[in-house]
């Protein structure tokens, strides 16, 4: 084509100037359309309107006609190629617009997730408040249990004091019972001794009575013998008889006194001993009754002591059971509280990690978008060649080739940057990202080199799953690691 334009330009005696006018209209955010003649259909392929100005004399009309035919054919081929390339660029622009819309949707989703995270924080705060209230309630119950325990300890101390008092009373009663037993034993021994003395006195009285009877019999025998002799010797002496009568009366009185005196003494002594034995028996009976009363009181005190000991043991068991139950409840609630707090801390840490990953991803996207915008602002639109009017077909071809290389290089740089950012995020989170690269968009020829241009689909710059989705799947057990 270049050699054809050169031969036509050299062979022509006049300057043939051709200009192509490309009209730029807005067909959406980044759409392009060429001004085309009415003969071209509206199927998407466009042609350019050519304006030719002839400045040669009429003598070379035939040559110009020939050159015009050749130029029309070459222009048609050039326009066809331009239309093909332009359609590819429009597809690229549409893909980029779709990518931008997806990025905006992701940004909105991130904003919603931030709002949801604040609501999760409020939910955690509410749960922490409930747990604090439960902990305060358990603390109050523990304080009440401690107070009940103190009251039970006071009751136990009071019962222990009463038990000690009863034990002292029991010891005193036992000592009194031992003293009474000793006194009863002494009384029994005294009675036995008195019985022995009574037996000895009875034997002595019998012996004295026998001796007295023997003496009286001897005296009576002597008196009778003397009376017979006196009667025989001096029957005439009456005064002797009276004297003997008096002596006999005296002896009888003396004998009667001698006979009644031991009996009276013995009777008095027996009465005294009987009275003493009766008083001792009354004292012994009173002592026995008192001992029986003391025994009954001691038995009642022992029964009461056993009852108090059983009550104390039951209270001790209730206290220990209450302490164990409350301690188990407190331990379980504390363990549950710590477990919930640890789980909430883990969830909060995971949310922070997800937030950091999303912030890194957003920062990477923002940096890429800002870099792309800065490059577009500083270097001009990659499609700026459509806004200028070309003065000649050589200038048109040179600028087309240059602009094509710029667009392809910028697009490849964008793809490389996005791939590097995605790989960095994947290495940060230990997640494998998958890049799906589409087919070839076209081939640019510059000299003898062939440069392949690849276009990106939407999934090439986005991971299969966001970090938040991967975290949810990991928590649900679908994936691990």
TrEMBL record:
SMART domains: Filament (SM01391). SUPFAM superfamilies: Intermediate filament protein, coiled coil region. It is found in: Cell projection, Axon; Cytoplasm, Cytoskeleton. Pfam families: Filament. Belongs to the intermediate filament family. One of its GO terms (cellular component) is axon. This is Neurofilament heavy. Residues 29-53 are annotated as: Disordered. It comes from the Eukaryota.
């Amino acid at each position: 084509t270049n050699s054809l334009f050169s031969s036509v330009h050299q062979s022509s005696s006049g300057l043939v100037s051709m200009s192509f006018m490309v009209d730029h209209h807005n067909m959406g955010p980044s759409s392009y359309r060429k001004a085309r003649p009415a003969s071209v259909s509206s199927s998407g392929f466009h042609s350019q309107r050519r304006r030719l100005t002839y400045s040669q004399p009429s003598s070379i009309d035939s040559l110009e006609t020939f050159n015009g035919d050749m130029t029309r054919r070459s222009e048609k081929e050039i326009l066809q190629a331009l239309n093909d390339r332009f359609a590819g660029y429009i597809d690229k622009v549409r893909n980029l617009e779709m990518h931008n819309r997806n990025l905006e949707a992701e940004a909105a989703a991130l904003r919603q997730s931030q709002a949801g995270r604040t609501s999760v924080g409020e939910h955690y705060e509410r749960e922490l408040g409930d747990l604090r209230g439960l902990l305060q309630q358990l603390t109050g119950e523990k304080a009440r249990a401690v107070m009940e325990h103190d009251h039970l300890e006071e009751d136990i101390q009071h019962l222990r004091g009463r038990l000690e008092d009863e034990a002292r009373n029991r010891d005193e009663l036992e000592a009194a019972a031992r003293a009474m037993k000793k006194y009863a034993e002494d009384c029994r021994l005294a009675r036995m001794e008195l019985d022995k003395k009574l037996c000895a006195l009875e034997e002595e009285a019998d012996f004295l009575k026998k001796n007295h009877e023997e003496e009286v019999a001897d005296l009576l025998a002597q008196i009778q013998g003397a009376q017979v002799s006196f009667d025989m010797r001096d029957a005439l002496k009456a005064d002797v008889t009276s004297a003997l009568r008096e002596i006999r009366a005296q002896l009888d009185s003396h004998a009667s006194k001698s006979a009644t005196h031991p009996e009276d003494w013995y009777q008095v002594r027996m009465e005294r001993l009987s009275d003493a034995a009766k008083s001792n028996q009354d004292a012994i009976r009173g002592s026995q009754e008192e001992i029986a009363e003391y025994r009954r009181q001691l038995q009642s005190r022992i029964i009461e002591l056993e009852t108090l000991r059983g009550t104390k043991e039951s209270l001790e068991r209730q206290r220990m059971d209450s302490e164990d139950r409350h301690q188990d409840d407190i331990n379980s609630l504390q363990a549950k509280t710590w477990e919930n707090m640890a789980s909430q801390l883990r969830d909060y840490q995971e949310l922070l990690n997800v937030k950091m990953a999303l912030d890194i991803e957003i920062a990477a996207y923002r940096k890429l978008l800002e870099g792309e915008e800065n490059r577009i602002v500083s270097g001009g639109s990659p499609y700026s060649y459509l806004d200028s009017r070309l003065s000649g077909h050589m200038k048109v071809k040179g600028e087309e080739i240059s602009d094509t290389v710029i667009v392809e290089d910028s697009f490849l740089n964008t793809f490389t940057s996005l791939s590097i950012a995605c790989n960095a995020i994947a290495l940060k989170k230990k997640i494998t990202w998958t890049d799906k690269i589409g087919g070839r968009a076209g081939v640019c020829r510059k000299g003898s080199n062939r440069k392949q241009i690849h276009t990106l689909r939407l999934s090439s710059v986005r991971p299969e799953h966001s970090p938040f989705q991967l975290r949810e799947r990991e928590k649900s057990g679908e994936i691990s690691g």
